[in-house]
Design goal:
InterPro entries: Homeodomain-like_sf (IPR009057), HTH-type_TetR-like_transc_reg (IPR050109), HTH_TetR (IPR001647). The protein is mostly helical. The protein is built from eleven helices and no strands.
């Protein structure tokens, strides 16, 4: 059996000691930086180890392959996002669709430094695309939950469709602000306005449906 095959089958090692946990954090931080800069496919295990100032054997000790590194990053990002989206869902009931649009965009901008490789992972072209689908699925589910709190009559499938549109708008704005996409000085504000108008148009018809249904039953 080749070393690559045994690495592929070995599970990710969960360190018990503080020094090991610190090393894993350093390796994941290096991987996040590289994937954000270069993309998932272009990043190599050797580069991750070098960026973290670690030996390649140390990296393989904790992660059998790059897919395992990416999986750990997705889980790390998901934990951060779930906490933030849960807090957002609590606020969403008091927000107008326009205000929710602004909050969602500002949330992504604020969270980006901590989850900057998430976009790269969402665009990853892995054989199974499991990493990509997990990353996208959690982001869409979090946004959709907030949309449904703001507009209780919105059904789950439509909420996910709208959330996917909002997610891509958020990514486009982040790219504009980072000068990674063609833009002009006023374009980011225009995109924010487009997002507010879109959410107002799609959510307002469903804002009072839930309340009306409860009134009818009572």
């Amino acid at each position: 059996m080749s070393s690559n095959t045994s690495r592929a089958k070995r599970a990710t090692l969960q360190p018990l000691r503080a020094a090991g946990r610190q090393r894993v954090e350093e390796l994941l931080a290096a991987a996040s930086d590289l994937m954000a800069e270069r993309g998932y496919e272009a990043t190599t295990m050797a580069e991750i180890a070098a960026r973290a100032g670690a030996k390649i054997g140390s990296l393989y000790r904790f992660f059998p392959n790059k897919e395992a590194v990416a999986d750990a990053l997705v889980q790390r990002h998901v934990t951060i996002l779930e906490e933030e989206y849960a807090a957002l869902a609590q606020r969403a009931a008091t927000l107008s669709p326009e205000a929710l649009g602004d909050v969602l965009i500002e949330l992504l901008i604020a969270l980006h430094p901590g989850v900057k490789s998430l976009s790269a992972l969402m665009e990853a072209r892995t054989d199974s695309m499991e990493i990509r689908e997990r990353a996208r699925g959690h982001a869409i589910a979090g946004i959709a939950a907030a949309l449904r709190v703001c507009a209780p009559g919105l059904d789950e499938m439509l909420a996910k469709d709208i959330a996917a549109v909002v997610l891509n708008t958020m990514k486009a704005l982040r790219s504009m602000l980072a000068k990674e996409a063609p833009t002009t000085p006023g374009a980011p504000d225009e995109l924010r306005r487009m997002n507010r108008l879109y959410l107002s148009d799609r959510l307002e018809p469903f804002r009072n449906i839930g309340a009306s249904a409860m009134d009818t039953k009572s």
